[in-house]
Amino acid sequence: MGKSKQCGNHKGDKKKNISKTWKTKRRTKDLDQIHTDMRPDQAAKLLKQDVDYDVTGSAQHYCLHCARYFVDLKAMKEHFKTKIHKKRLKQLREEPYTQEEAERAAGMGSYIPHKKVEVHTQAVEEDMD
Ligand SMILES: [Zn+2]
Fold it and tell me: Is the pTM of this model over 0.85?
């Protein structure tokens, strides 16, 4: 065995961008509120908000599922790739389960399976310029 060959695929440059783990401010909406926001009419309004300079990114880049604003499209797209966002989509796939619903199902003797909803990251409009 001689010298180990230097193979040129050094996979040491994975970006680990967890430099700032800021404390989560509990300002986000409840999941059931977000379910409401996900209704197409509501979603359309939220995704096309008027310019508001008091809001991050002038309220032009809003993640519907996390109820968060981003400074620009790039920041929002980066956010879509994060665990936080993916975890949120997963949470939102489960429809809110109420006690009432459970009792009704039990009373009728037939269990209605929990509806799974498809939740996808909202489409982003790519700026072509
Ligand atoms: Zn998100």
Answer: no
